[in-house]
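Entry:
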Amino acid sequence: MVQEAEKYKAEDEKQRDKVSSKNSLESYAFNMKATVGDERLQGKINGEDKQKIPDKCNEIINRLDKNPTAEKGELEHQQKELEKACDPTITKLPSPGLLPEGRPWRYQGGPWAQKQKRRSMYCAFAQCYHSTV
């Protein structure tokens, strides 16, 4: 029995990583759609971006539905693609209530890596705008 567990351990870890990547991508897509659709941000997002981001999110969600057996690398590539489409708009938005004087997050703190900035910004929006809905 122990030998069988060891035999399937690598497969289990691979499957766990794949499911985690899929959940992360799906969650990011739904949260970006909700963020852009939030009525409190309607005046802060231009019309082109208001349509572009939900369209890209829907495209990603449809790909996930059509290809449930996608590999981890493909899912990570899709997430980077979606982040690339969303980041220019999301980074322009201020995060009221989370930072002093309502200044945008990019003016706060020291030099962070770009990925850390995106994740911090995303987490701030998720906490501020989606936890109160």
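Residues 97-113 have pLDDT under 50 and may be disordered.
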